[in-house]
Design a protein that fits this description.
heterodimer, A: seven-stranded mixed beta sheet, two-stranded antiparallel ribbon, B: mainly alpha, 71% helix, elongated
């Protein structure tokens, strides 16, 4: 069996390796390559204690790893190869060790090392070695767990240089603008297909901005203000409540998730935030909520333009109907009628384009402002916010969202309670069944 | 129905202009954009005129007739956006009669448009916004909670969830859009029967129960999710409390906040975040 995984991880055999990768790859042999460990029998024994029961482990030096006997051992088993640093990896490759892929799974902080990913800290020598390894045609990629996205070396070694990370934002911001425009049309022009709902909008933004799974997206479900269309009031009188309810700003969830994802992916090295993703998500949610307010202002522009357009349409049709005092018959008359209708049609399509542009601009500007806010606020916030505190925020937000959802959507309280209990029981049973079958 | 011509009167004048099925389809498709020129004064009126253009162009070959018809429909109109097709179809039928010289007055068309619009909005809003929309979201979220994560490769569930949500919602909502104009055209003379045929109340009740079921399932999933599956049930009491307390606090804030200030969801969410920060600072 060819080598299953070659991984640089300064923790060597630990949970991510034994259960994360081990569970997915089902290895039978863990080979640790380290001169220092090979020279220290006690440490190697401790290290091999982490090998799961259904596999065996061995510590070898770099020179031994290059011998044909160890090669044969690797071939005979399902092997995961572990190296504590980039040096071992580059020496193995210099010795013509057969390796096509190299996984960077964990190189943690030490003096002189800079963060490029939450679990990868590199100094200049590391970077040189990794570049040289990649130049040999080995596919180098960072990935802590099989379920998480793989980051090819090109993405993080370039982003790591100060300044270029922000430059990489430009194409993404364009995509954000297009998405914002589409979502605004869905919402404001009456498509009403749910594209613009927070859940869907946030996931779309995630897929567009960062084509890898990001669990943090779930926290970005910014609660949605309910839109209501009350029964039509008597002619000529429009309640003010109705005005505020129907003039909804473009969707904001895409702004929140964009800020969080772009921040995590592109600006991580620029703003070292101790908690990585969690803090970015919090910033993203805040940006989304704030931009909900700003979105109302931007839609104000569209609203005033729409008023003008409607007045123009009135004027147009009035003139046309007066003109028609002279009846044109036949083909010529039909053509004139078509022309008159097309003026109004053009007006309408133009308004549609405006909805798109307003939404695009709003999403773009909201995301940009959110990112700038994060750059300003995050360094100070990072010190105070611990993982525990963020956990509390998530839990209260989730609780509020659940209660708000139930409050708003389930109207028959008594029957609702029964159905809810039934649903909870069903979910627990299903979870238990899923756990049984998977184990 | 008064003012809309005689239903039993069959007039096959040689020059009769009929609305074609394709006109109704085009009208239905245009109804997708019905809110583009939404203003507080006219609401969906301009959109209504825009959507009805294919029908009006068929019926009124003369320029000033067409312009008058457009003007007529530019006036105030508001209903549920997904259900506008029914009114558009009915209006097409009335306009057809009017174009063929029957005694249909402008006022009658306007009055009956409104008469249909109000109950449609009254039934559509609770059904689509309040019941169907959160249910569709729940389907997506619960699916992702129940499907185990793939051990290898990207987590495709992240895309599955919004897709399921979109499918659930539109599987119910799109049929109303597709058949709306035709049903409206056929049933234009029996508005009450038209409204009853939608059966939105019955559907709404069933989907409401399904929604409550979904909230129960979601609550169970959230509690499991907050555990990250790492703590055994009932063993670690402190962990249980530190998990449940912020969740319960958030739920209390959400519930009480919306009872006191209905509709202020953004503010209530910010209050919950602030409470979480405070609680985290104290513990």
């Amino acid at each position: 069996v060819p080598l299953l995984l070659a991984r640089i991880d300064d923790r060597l055999i630990h949970g991510q390796v034994a259960y994360g990768w081990g569970g997915a790859l089902k290895p039978t042999f863990y080979l640790v390559v380290s001169d220092a460990l090979r020279a220290d029998p006690m440490r190697s024994e401790v290290c091999l204690c982490g090998v799961p029961d259904d596999a065996r482990g061995r510590v070898v030096s770099v020179a031994e790893a290059l011998t044909s006997s160890v090669q044969a051992e690797i071939e005979a088993e399902r092997t995961i190869l572990l190296m504590p640093g980039t040096e071992e990896a580059s020496r193995l490759l210099e010795g013509a060790f057969p390796m096509t892929e190299l996984n960077v799974g964990g190189l943690h902080h030490a003096p002189g090392k800079r963060e490029v990913l939450p679990y990868v800290f590199l100094d200049d020598a590391d970077k040189e070695r990794l570049r040289a390894i990649a130049a040999r045609g080995v596919r180098v990629a960072a990935r802590d767990l099989p379920a998480n996205p793989s980051h090819p070396i090109e993405s993080w070694l370039r982003a790591e240089t100060r300044g270029t990370g922000a430059l990489n934002l430009i194409p993404e911001m364009l995509r954000v603008a297009v998405l914002g425009g589409v979502l605004a049309v869905d919402r404001a022009a009456g498509w009403s297909t749910m594209l613009s709902q927070p859940l869907v909008g946030a996931c779309l933004a995630g897929a567009l901005v960062n084509p890898g799974p990001e669990w943090e997206l779930w926290a970005l479900r910014v609660p949605d203000r309910r839109r209501r269309h009350p029964p039509a009031p008597p002619h000529g009188r429009v309640a003010s409540r109705q005005r505020s309810a129907t003039m909804t700003p473009p969707p904001r969830a895409s702004v929140g998730s964009t800020v969080a994802l772009l921040g995590m992916v592109r600006l991580h090295s620029e703003i070292p935030a101790a908690l990585g993703g969690g803090l970015w998500v919090l910033v993203g949610v805040a940006a989304g909520l704030l931009s909900a307010v700003a979105g109302g202002w931007v839609m104000g522009y569209h609203r005033s333009q729409s008023r003008r357009d409607v007045a123009r349409a009135d004027e147009l049709e009035e003139r046309e109907s007066a003109d028609g005092a002279v009846l044109l018959g036949g083909v010529e008359g039909a053509r004139a009628a078509k022309r008159s209708a097309s003026h109004f049609e053009f007006l309408y399509w133009k308004a549609m384009g405006r909805v798109f542009l307003v939404g695009a601009f709003w999403s773009w500007a909201g995301s940009l402002l959110g990112l700038m806010l994060a750059i300003a606020v995050l360094p100070a916030l990072g010190e105070w916010l611990s993982g525990r505190r963020i956990g509390f925020v998530f839990a209260t937000t989730l609780g509020a969202a659940l209660a708000a959802g139930y409050h708003a959507h389930v109207r028959n309280r008594r029957a609702g309670g029964r159905w809810m209990a039934l649903g909870a029981a069903a979910a627990l049973v299903l979870l238990a069944v899923a756990r049984e079958t998977s184990s | 129905v008064s003012g809309l011509g005689d239903v039993n009167e069959v007039r096959e004048a040689p020059a009769a202009i009929r609305v074609r099925s394709e006109d109704l389809v085009r009208t239905g498709a245009r109804a997708l954009h019905i809110q583009t020129l939404l203003t507080p004064e006219r609401m969906q009126g301009p959109g209504f005129a825009f959507a009805l253009l294919p029908v009006l162009e068929r019926l009124y070959p003369a320029r000033h007739d067409l312009a008058r018809a457009i003007r007529r429909h530019l006036a105030y109109f508001a209903t549920h956006p997904i259900l506008t097709g029914y009114v558009l179809g009915a209006a097409a039928r009335w306009e057809e009669r009017r174009a063929n010289g029957e005694a249909v007055t402008d006022e009658a068309i306007d009055t009956w448009k409104r008469a249909l619009a109000s109950p449609l909005a009254a039934m559509g809003d609770p059904f689509f916004w309040v019941t169907l929309r959160p249910l569709a979201g729940l389907v997506g979220i619960i699916a992702i909670g129940l499907i185990p994560a793939p051990t290898l490769g990207p987590d495709w569930r992240v895309l599955l969830c919004p897709l399921l949500t979109l499918l659930t919602y539109n599987a119910v909502a799109l049929p109303f859009r597709v058949v709306g104009t035709h049903v409206g055209y056929i049933e234009a003379d029996r508005p009450a029967a038209l409204l009853r045929s939608l059966r939105l109340r019955e559907w709404g009740h069933a989907l409401g129960c399904a929604g409550a079921l979904g909230y129960g399932a979601l609550l169970a999933l959230v509690i499991r999710f907050l555990d990250f599956g790492s703590i055994d049930w009932g063993l670690d009491v402190t962990a249980r409390i530190t998990t449940a307390a912020p969740l319960a606090l958030g739920a209390a804030i959400g519930w009480a906040g919306l009872l006191k200030w209905p509709g202020r969801v953004v503010e209530v969410a910010l209050a919950a975040i602030a409470a979480g920060l405070l609680l985290g600072g104290l513990v």
